[in-house]
Design brief:
Elements: H1 3-16, H2 18-56, E1 60-65, E2 69-70, E3 73-74, E4 83-84, H3 85-94, E5 98-113, E6 116-125, H4 129-132, E7 137-140, H5 145-150, E8 154-157, H6 159-166, E9 175-178, E10 181-189, E11 204-208, H7 209-216, E12 227-228, E13 230-235, H8 241-255, E14 266-270, H9 271-314, H10 316-324, H11 329-366, H12 374-400, H13 404-409
Parallel strand pairs: 6-11, 8-10
Antiparallel strand pairs: 1-13, 1-14, 2-3, 4-12, 5-6, 5-9, 5-13, 7-10, 8-11, 9-10
Helix pairs in contact: 1-11, 2-9, 2-11, 2-12, 3-8, 9-11, 9-12, 11-12
Length: 411
């Protein structure tokens, strides 16, 4: 019997018992749909996290003051003696393997242009900040080291500022007033979108760190001279991050007069550790998804096998008649095996459509970027075919081994 004839007979048999076939396919449909939806959401989330990490910089170290202890009472994180410009220079000059180091101070203020005003975050930074934090200049330029140290009233603005104050027009060369003082816009940065905690990263104005202190009083912590809220350090590609962290800790312990054996009053956050933890979490999540999908497909496969065994029982006389008129046992086996595969393929196709539809609906409702991978689609369909082969083989072999005379006598 030809393959096409076997497929045609399989389709006829499935159409005759349409409801039973649909119920048999239900497990495969649910299994394939769940694989598509869960893996697509997982991949979309993974890409969002990767984009977020890229926006910070993959080799970024974040150095902050730690907690303080005074009179037996422990203060919160950041309450210890602030870091300073001197710490920034020391790390940049004394730690090998640094691609860039920048301090940062922040404050909030209202920016005014013409008759429009907008409350935003002001960030005073060093000239290396844009490279360290992977901010890309869109129009104009960033400020130079000489301009940063001289306290020039130059600013670089985010895309939210461009949209709200300038209605999307190029603002380079324009003057914006902040706390009643004029600042010249020398550049804009490319958009970064929302952070992982929902903050608008583009709603920001950058200015030289010295300017933010002198003109706006940002980050002042008397009696500390030239304090910074946080230091960002970019480790050069190929450098040993653990060694760089150890060097940073050694230098800061000396500069902050921390005695041997005493606890650090600062912290060095390593984004690479976060990446590794994220990868481990994703691997565990992927394993759980695979186990869940395998269980659902297993249940669906058992349903397919049960239906095929019922089909063999119902068509015993047909099998005996075909064997009596010359059909080979392998023809009988192949016919029922093909019926099982076709059943699972239909279930896989319906599950694929349901999975993609569910993914698109979830993306629309959750306003998320979802990735439907062609590889996952191929794996899901291939798995449904394998289920058809594995769970259809026993009923097919049972049909092929029937004795023609006993089969013809079957009631």
């Amino acid at each position: 019997m030809s393959l096409l004839a076997s497929i045609r007979i399989a389709l006829i048999a499935l159409r005759v018992n349409a409801l039973r076939s649909a119920l048999a396919m239900l497990g495969v449909i649910i299994g394939v749909a769940s694989v598509i939806v869960l893996v697509s959401i997982s991949e979309g989330t993974k890409r969002a996290v990767e984009d977020q990490i890229a926006s910070f910089g993959a080799n970024l170290l974040i150095i902050r003051p730690g907690s303080s202890i005074f009179g037996g009472r422990r203060g919160g994180a950041g309450s210890a003696t602030p870091l300073t410009d001197g710490d920034v220079l020391a790390l940049a000059n004394e730690v090998p393997g640094m691609a860039g180091v920048s301090g940062e101070v922040n404050t909030n203020a209202t920016a005014v242009f013409g008759g429009v005003n907008w409350s935003t975050r002001i960030s005073g930074v060093n000239a290396d900040y844009f490279d360290v934090r992977a901010w890309v200049i869109d129009e104009g330029r960033a400020f130079a080291p000489a301009e940063e140290s001289s306290g020039r009233r130059f600013v670089v603005v985010g895309q939210t500022i461009v949209r709200e104050l300038f209605d999307g027009a190029d603002p380079v060369g324009q003057t914006v007033r902040i706390q009643g003082q004029p600042f010249e816009i020398i550049g804009t940065v490319e958009p970064k979108g929302e952070s992982s905690w929902g903050a608008d990263q583009d709603d920001i104005i950058f200015m030289p760190l010295a300017t933010a202190r002198q003109r706006l009083g940002a980050g002042q912590r008397p009696p500390t001279r030239d304090p910074v809220s946080v230091i960002y350090a970019d480790v050069a590609a190929g450098e040993d991050v653990d060694r760089v962290i150890a060097d940073i800790e050694d230098i800061l312990r000396v500069r902050r007069d921390i005695l041997p054996g005493a606890e650090d009053d600062f912290s060095v956050g390593n984004l690479a550790e976060f990446i590794r933890a994220r990868n481990e979490t994703e691997n565990q999540l992927g394993l759980l998804l695979a186990v869940g999908a395998a269980i659902v497909l297993l249940v669906g496969g058992i349903g397919i096998m049960n239906i095929m065994l019922v089909s063999v029982t119902e068509r015993t006389r047909e099998i005996g008649l075909r064997l009596a008129v010359g059909a080979r046992r392998r023809d009988i086996r192949n016919q029922f095996l093909i019926e099982s595969i076709v059943l699972c393929l239909f279930g896989g196709a319906v599950g694929l459509a349901a999975g993609i539809g569910g993914t698109l609906i979830y993306a629309e409702i959750g306003q998320l970027e979802i990735a439907v991978s062609p590889l996952i689609v191929g794996v899901a369909i291939s798995a449904s075919v394998l289920v058809g082969v594995f769970f259809g083989l026993y009923p097919a072999q049972r049909a092929a081994r029937l004795n023609p005379i006993d089969a013809l006598r079957h009631e």
